């Protein structure tokens, strides 16, 4: 993917030159129900596999739901406001991370590392013409119980994965939000020498 997508270009411009994949990746809510072939889907998790991690602990884990039965299990802990749109997504994935390292100590970087894995997954999805949308709107304890997740794992987000649908397929109140979001200027997030938020 060499070019910025037309739907993205009018909403996002980089100050410095970067690969277009970073701008093209955004979080739509309208999904087609078309299945994602295994070789495409698992390439996303292959990309996540190669994310950096502290001491190479690779603490991230993914639980995926593709069958109707597995997706229904996920719906039991996803917030209603997200279910309105995510039920059309052919794949749902829960990202979690192991909080204990190989020596049995608390792994301080587990969430940081899981975030890197999610980023790699999302970028590979954009490269493959897929969309992803990570949701914090879910009940972690219900999810832990429904999916049999051990106590030493922290649950971070549910990710909808699939092909982008038409904006008009969403409820009217969500249609106006179906555009790529902008970002703060670098001067608001990068400080030289000392913290200097304005």
What's the CATH H-level superfamily name of the domain at 31-166? NADH Oxidase
Quantity of strands, as a count: 4
N-to-C CA distance? 37 Å
Strand arrangement in the largest pleated sheet: 1-2-4-3
Helix proportion: 25-40%
Kindly name the structural category.
alpha+beta
Q: Unreliable stretches, pLDDT < 50, 5 or more residues?
A: none
Envelope shape: globular
Secondary-structure element series: HHHEHHEHEHEH
Number of helices: 8
**Quaternary state of the chains:** single chain
Q: Could you tell me the strand content as a percent range?
A: 5-15%
Query: The biggest beta sheet, please?
Result: 4 strands, antiparallel
Using the coordinates above, name the CATH class of the domain at 31-166. Answer: Alpha Beta
What is the CA-atom radius of gyration, in angstroms?
18 Å
Name the CATH architecture of the domain at 31-166: 3-Layer(aba) Sandwich
**Mean pLDDT across every amino acid position:** 96
Fold-level CATH name of the domain at 31-166: NADH Oxidase
Entry keywords:
198 residues, alpha+beta, NADH Oxidase, four-stranded antiparallel beta sheet, 8 helices, 4 strands, Nitroreductase, Nitroreductase-like, oxidoreductase, Nitroreductase family protein
Notes on the protein architecture:
By secondary structure, the chain is of the alpha+beta class. Strands 1-2-4-3 form a four-stranded antiparallel sheet, sandwiched between helices. The chain is built from eight helices and four strands. It is globular and about 50 Å long. The model has no long low-confidence stretch (mean pLDDT 96). It has a domain of 136 residues: NADH Oxidase (3-Layer(aba) Sandwich). The protein starts with 5 loop residues before the first helix and ends in a 23-residue tail after the last helix. 28% of the residues are buried. The longest helix is centred in the middle third of the chain and has 18 residues. Belongs to the nitroreductase family. InterPro entries: Nitroreductase, Nitroreductase-like. One of its GO terms (molecular function) is oxidoreductase activity. Keywords: Oxidoreductase.
């Amino acid at each position: 993917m060499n070019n910025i997508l037309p739907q993205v270009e009018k909403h996002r411009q980089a100050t410095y030159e970067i690969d277009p994949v970073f701008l093209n990746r955004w979080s739509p809510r309208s999904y087609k129900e078309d299945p994602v072939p295994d070789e495409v889907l698992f390439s996303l998790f292959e990309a996540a596999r190669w994310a950096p991690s502290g001491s190479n602990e690779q603490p991230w884990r993914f639980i995926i739901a593709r069958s109707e039965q597995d997706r229904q299990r996920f719906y039991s802990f996803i917030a209603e406001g997200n279910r309105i749109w995510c039920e059309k997504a052919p794949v749902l994935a829960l990202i979690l991370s192991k909080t204990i390292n190989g020596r049995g100590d608390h792994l301080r970087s587990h969430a940081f590392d899981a975030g890197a894995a999610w980023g790699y997954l999302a970028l590979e999805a954009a490269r493959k013409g897929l969309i992803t949308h990570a949701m914090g709107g879910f009940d972690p304890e219900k999810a832990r119980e429904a999916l049999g997740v051990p106590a030493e794992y922290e649950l971070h987000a549910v990710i909808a994965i699939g092909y982008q649908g038409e904006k008009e397929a969403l409820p009217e109140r969500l249609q106006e939000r179906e555009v790529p979001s902008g970002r703060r200027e670098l001067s608001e997030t990068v400080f030289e020498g000392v913290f200097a938020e304005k």
